[in-house]
Amino acid sequence: MSVQSSAPFDEGDFTLRDGTNIRALPKVSLHDHLDGGLRAQTIIELADEIGLELPATNAPELSNWFADQSDSGSLVEYLKTFDVTTAVMQTSHGLRRVARDFVNDLGADGVVYGEVRWAPEQHLKRGLSLDDAVNAVQAGINEGIDDVRSHGKRIRVGQLVSAMRHAGNGLEIAKLAVRHREQGVVGFDIAGPEDGFPPTNLQEAFDYLMSERFPATVHAGEAAGLDSIESAIFDAHALRLGHGVRIAEDIDLEGEDEDGTYVSLGRLAQWVRDRRIPLELSPSSNLQTGAITAWGENIEDHPFDLLYQLGFTVTVNTDNRLMSATSVSRELTLLADTFDYDLADLETFQLNAAEGAFLPIEDREELAEIVSEGFDEAGA
Q: Which EC number(s) are documented for this chain (predicted)?
């Protein structure tokens, strides 16, 4: 049985201004990387088992190292921290342990439905096959779900299998995802360096997924702009946009007066908004990687509120909980404090995520009911 290590950071007291406990609210997490959500103590223990030297040897210092390294303003530099986490995720034991911890941490944060994305092709250095890796992660997910439910909470978690957009294995990974569609894999993703590696490089994979009626989300609009978003939607048939924050580049601010701010939407922004294509926004990560430098360098500069007020289907995500020292509750707290959101706003974000979940319509409706019931109880 896996040892359940302490969480990677102190969750703190995340509350709305009216005193509502945000951690207790039912939440939906759509954009959360397995190799970005490890507990620091778990890394230390798994590294010791394989003789891996780490930049720090106690959990608080290692957590701080990840946060410092990730706060670079560059996606390329940010991604280098994953060399450490993936190094301890090369065995069935390591993958199973990390996945179990991952689900337990979601449950502790009040997440009732989560999708965990990861790239199996990055976990084959110690002899695992692609199928072995997916099976190991699913075993850990199942154990984590049992742990959470044993504490009287509800949770459901699905895998998003990612292909690395620069590696050239897109079709093989797409077939892997479809092969495991009845064993926990709910969708497909492409990850890694976005700029210079458009979705069309993996066109064969996306065409195959479409032929199999298998859903995909695509990292787009983070390190690259509108062309990346357009290709994700129209070439890759993406049902959601991983980040997608730079869709705001297609919104022109025309002026403001005492009645408010006037804007016009470009055709791509109009398409994304009107078809309710979910944006998997990750505020803290977007600051760290420089995804919002066109608007500023602070949380109040994030175009999240602009997109929300204009009717885009915004969702709130962590991206990488270890690198950003965050949780869904922390991200919601940051947004609520910055933009003066109330309980109804936070419920909208969760319902948007429930709507965009890669689940059958009946399950999405049930998930929305779970969210609404929980928020109703909190507001009573």
A: 3.5.4.4
